[in-house]
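Example (one chain per record):
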Amino acid sequence: HAHAHAHDSHSARSSASTADYAVWVKAIGSTLLISALPAAILVFIPVDKDKASSHNLLKVLLSFASGGLLGDAFLHLLPHAAHPHSHGVSLKFLQPFFWLE
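Predicted structure:
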């Protein structure tokens, strides 16, 4: 009996899922690495809650942390402000939480 169909779709699908898996592993691994290095450095910062010098150090470190987070958020919003676009994600289900009466 003669019939013709391609069996390549099965191998293409498995190679695509393998590539997706590799991307996820690399993304999660790099995120863990980037997050672990600063956490490891925190071990070497001397903080004693009873010393005034530690309070000053904590204020400086918290200033850098909050400035870094605010700067990062601001810099991520600049491209969206310059070129508004949609990501195709609907957040209408969150709308009731933002209604003020």
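Caption: The first helix runs from residue 8 to 41.
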